[in-house]
Amino acid sequence: MKALVHYGKTGLEGLRLKEIQSVLLKDNEVRIKVKVAGLNHRDLFTLQQHDPNGEPLIIGSDAAGVITEVGSKVTKFKVNDEVMIYPAVGWDRKSDAPDDDFKILGNPINGTFAEEVIAAETHIALKPKSYSWEEAGVLSLAALTAYRALFSRGEVKKGDKVLIPGIGGGAASFLLQFAKAAGAHVTVTSRSKEKLAAALELGADQGLVTDEDWSTALNGDKFDIVIESVGAATFQKSLDSLRKGGTMVMFGSSTGDVVDFNLRGFFYGQFNLKGTTMGSFEEYQEMLQFVEAHQIHPIVDKVFDVEGFEEAFRYLENAKQQGKIGIRFAD
Ligand SMILES: NC(=O)c1ccc[n+]([C@@H]2O[C@H](COP(=O)([O-])OP(=O)(O)OC[C@H]3O[C@@H](n4cnc5c(N)ncnc54)[C@H](OP(=O)(O)O)[C@@H]3O)[C@@H](O)[C@H]2O)c1
User: Fold this and answer.
1) Both 51 and 127 in a single domain?
2) Could you give the C-alpha distances from 283 to 48, 265, 315, 319, in angstroms and in order?
3) Which of 59, 91, 131, 159 has the fewest CB atoms found within 10 Å of its own CB?
4) pLDDT digits (tens, 9 = 90+) for 168-203
5) How many angstroms does the Cα of residue 149 sit away from the middle of ligand 1?
6) Which residues line ligand 1 (CB under 6 A)?
7) Domain total for the chain?
8) Are 80 and 157 members of one domain?
């Protein structure tokens, strides 16, 4: 089978579509023929972080496809079931944080950008019937992260005022859809006026240009919750936009990991700052019930054939997308 394997060189130069050997199934596993896999910003980071001289790594965290083989002890799924893959191992129940054996697919363990993926039956879920393969393929990691950030960590309630910086991002697009479904009033930011217009179409109540002075644009209005994933470029502005006692939840730092921030402003503001990363399998199942109940469909910007993977990565790197990018492995 073919897979996108990283080795030899740091970055995109070390990523190749390569023929590799299929492996045998364990008793509790299923073999999935991948239809569409989803790109995440973390895949760009993986190309920088993975040791090119270490073991070759199949990258990617998201995929959906059809079961072609089941292990002898598999009871919940059968051949031809259409499924999506939970993008991690080692975190079953909802908790403050996973144990140390929590690992995300695609780095440090082999991931989903392959014609075939093997997964434990306890780490997959049936694809929502109304979803296309494109929608199912791009959903898992970003939607799960958004779900935990907003509900488990942000504890969003109906009527809350929520700010989402960087709305062009894949995870941010789910945050907008989920927050609106929960009855929140949602403000988004983007560097692109076109993306702001599209977010307003999608239900955002208000849009700000990321680089403008938000405080002036908002006329002093503040937020109950900010969900931050842009990182250094917007961190202080996001914190300054909270109402006293408000909560900022962070799961990304696309523009840099290190910031200076005003400690006195922080404690006078009685702010809460919470980190979050992805989510447990229990939250994954809750998220799937939530998207089905609210008929939420992922915003799929573009799907590239696997042979065009380099173009897909550049498209993501240049933040051209509004929503999610997919890679097609089979029709
Ligand atoms: N911890 C976790 O479990 C987890 C899970 C998912 C994602 N993440 C992280 O969350 C972040 C977003 O992920 P994603 O996959 O949704 O990313 P993405 O699709 O690549 O989107 C990132 C967005 O951030 C904004 N942005 C990028 N550079 C910017 C800059 N210099 N100034 C202002 N805004 C900028 C852009 O929004 P506009 O185009 O609208 O300006 C861009 O669309 C990444 O850092 C990712 O690693 C973490």
Assistant:
1) yes
2) 29, 33, 30, 28
3) 159
4) 888 999 999 999 999 999 999 999 999 999 999 999
5) 14
6) 40-42, 45, 141-142, 145, 166-172, 190-192, 195, 210, 229-230, 233, 251-255, 277-278, 316, 319
7) 2
8) no
